[in-house]
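Dear Dr. K.,

Following up on our conversation at the group meeting, I've run the structure prediction for Universal stress protein from Undibacterium aquatile. I'm pasting the input sequence below exactly as I used it, so you can double-check it against your construct before we proceed with anything downstream. Let me know if the numbering doesn't match what you have in your notebook.
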Amino acid sequence: MYSKILMPTDGSELANASIQAGIEFAKKVNAKVVGIFVAANYQYPIYIDIIPPNTPTEEEYQAAMRAFGESYLEPARVAAHKEGLEFESVVKFSDAPAKEIVHTAQQYACDLIFIASHGRSGVGQLLLGSTTSKVLSMCDIPVLVHRVKKH
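The predicted structure tokens came back this morning:
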């Protein structure tokens, strides 16, 4: 069925719930799991004349975002290992997260993307979240959209 599943997260509650559901699904089909966090690219402060001394360098920003990404992916790693699944985490930088998710799925030879219906934007929207919608429109491999049920 599926041998390697990509699971994106933005660290939100909804994404975490979907990751847990994705791990359960991966266990059922005995698939490897690749977790991904996509951080925004570093933005140079070009709109001001003097750069404040507390502005992080690009290297500092990337190190901080890698740390955030790994912390967001850690619950998935723990859950996967608890279920005896292979897990690999990936932190990427892009201002087009959907495009990066699809590219990473291809790069890591994933045959399914298991993604939350919404991320940080929340469930207040009537339609799918923008990143999820873009992944669906760009992707040529199956995408399973997980919707968290309200209690």
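Two things stood out to me. The chain has a mean pLDDT of 89. The longest strand covers residues 32-39.

Best regards,
J.T.
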